[in-house]
Amino acid sequence: MGNYTLLLSGDVDFMIKGIFSYNCFGHEVWITTTHVCTLIVMVLLVAFAALAGKAIKKANEDEAPGTFLNIVELIIEFLDGVVNSVMGKNATKFVNYILTLFFFIFISNISGLLGLRPPTADYGVTFPLGVITFSLITFNKFKHQKVSGVIKGLCDPWVFWLPINLIGDFAVPVSLSLRLFANVLSGTVMMALYYGLLPVFVKIGIPAVLHIYFDLFSGAIQTYVFCMLTMTYVTDAIGDN
């Protein structure tokens, strides 16, 4: 497990760590910090969804909604508005996926505020997200543009552009995943270096400001960028149909 952990000094540790391993059909499989942190994020999302659902069921039309329900409605209305503004008439088909993607990436990005290692700082998490989006794009291309339309698009403006257009299409999941991964990992590394290498007296107060930028602000921006690009690519794949 030496490849999973990198210690620059006594307290600097920002790499993925193996927690325990088990044997699966003759292969050693490790459960890492990424698995645990992802599970915690999923539990938080399920708990939030359960509380929101309970609050909605208890809501009374004759009474003003509580603070929690107001916050939930504000978040959902804002995200619905963003999806509708980008995807237009296609928004209703993809709003559930985009909102799920948004919540998962955002909570993962800001999980550093809870003392966790953000799951999105692991390329093994961001790359599958990029592949899912790429699969959604490709499916809608063939569904709405048909095979002839896809081939025509790949050969546009000339047939000699086919290899370049193919590379551009297959670069989508890589670029999406690498952008998210690199930005989140850089914040994780910066915070680890700050906590591990600087004297104790400069760790009072300043980390809060750094966490606001690297975890909250940067995490929100990267979530927005990933979801916005996903909506743009899917909308472009559907075309005018």
Structure description:
It is a single chain. The chain is mainly alpha-helical. It has one domain. Helices cover 70% and strands 5% of the residues. The protein has 6 helices and 2 strands, in the order E-E-H-H-H-H-H-H. It has a two-stranded antiparallel sheet with strand order 1-2. Helix 3 packs antiparallel against helix 6 and helix 4 runs antiparallel to helix 5. The longest helix is centred in the C-terminal third of the chain and has 36 residues.
List keywords for this structure.
single chain, 241 residues, mainly alpha, 6 helices, 2 strands, 70% helix, 5% strand, disordered N terminus
Segments where pLDDT lies below 50 for 5+ residues? 1-11
Rounded to the nearest angstrom, the radius of gyration is 21 Å
* Tally of DSSP β-strands: 2
Distance between the ends: 51 Å
What's the rounded overall pLDDT mean? 83
Name the overall outline: globular
Number of helical stretches of at least 4 residues: 6
> What share of residues are in beta strands?
5-15%
The main β sheet shows up as: 2 strands, antiparallel
SSE string, helix = H, strand = E?
EEHHHHHH
Tally of individual domains = 1
Helix/strand class: mainly alpha
Helix percent band: 55-70%
The neighbouring-strand order within the major sheet is 1-2
